[in-house]
Design a protein that fits this description.
7 helices; 4-stranded antiparallel β-sheet; globular
Length: 363
Amino acid sequence: NIIYDSRRNVKRSHYPSSQHIIWGDNRRFHVCQVCRIELQRMDSTPKTKRILFTVDAASAKMKLGEYLADNLETLSRMYLRELIRDGKCEVNGTHVNSGYRLSPCDFIEIEADVSRGTAMRPEDIPLEVLYEDAELLVVNKPAGMLAHPSHRDKSGTLLNALAFHINKEFLTQRRKVAKDAKIIWQNNESAIRNPHSAIIRPGLIHRLDKQTSGLMVVAKTARAHRILSGHFMKKRVEKRYLALVEGVVANDEGEIEAPIGRFAELKYWSVKEDGKHSKSRYWVQERYADTTLVELEPVTGRTNQLRIHCELIGHPIVGDTARGGREFERLCLHAYKLAFPHPTGGEMLRFESPCEFAADGTT
């Protein structure tokens, strides 16, 4: 059967086990699936691919951004949002925003640089895992480690380490860890959102700054990722930090409220009149000669919020030289307590992790 699509000047030849699409200028593509199609222009650069999806009934009412993140696992949500914003994605031939609600049989076309997924390669990096089951794990991230790959740093991150840890048995069995990992991740075969794959992609629910240490929960399944993300959005998660701050804090406890925004020209986050509302709470744990150990709760979750609020009250965090703290071997900020309902059953899981700088307050 031949179907002609006048919108795209496309002829589609349907076969029982595969599909070919012939564009108006006779460029030919091979498509491996009927409902999930990946196209490669024969004369295009190897990095860019046009990827097509037909939305099934199970994915109806999902937001476009969420659907793409679920089905293009190795590409970051930020990159996918950029593609949607820049008109590189269409639904039924129309540009829509990332919040567009999908319907059954919607036809999605997106053009993406699939090579950006290679940063998610598994790396054998030691991890301190406090808890792990079939759906999630809780890890203690060390200071100085990025949570996820960036444009500049594509290895040595927490996600690289998690990708190896979660899939260690599978990769070891194949006895070609480096080669197989590269092939698997490049071909978008990770299983956190793809149940047909053997490899699992760790899904970050929240993040910590590079210089901040402490507890993080990571999803191992798509279901766990959705439920845990909902817990964070609905503020059903308890997060507490310990920080060693400069000077002796007078009050035993208090609240700090100040809007936080980004100064684009300085590429710097700080208190800003037109910034977003931000609120933190603190409790003094121990006072030393010239420093104070405080417990912090970020009521809201703005970028660098705790560092900015500590600076605002005149007690910057030790090691935060950019905000007035003294030089130290690390930033003295540690996410020491984390509690959340388990995605299956709702049992409250509670974890604590001590920090090395809280021993005696000396620096």
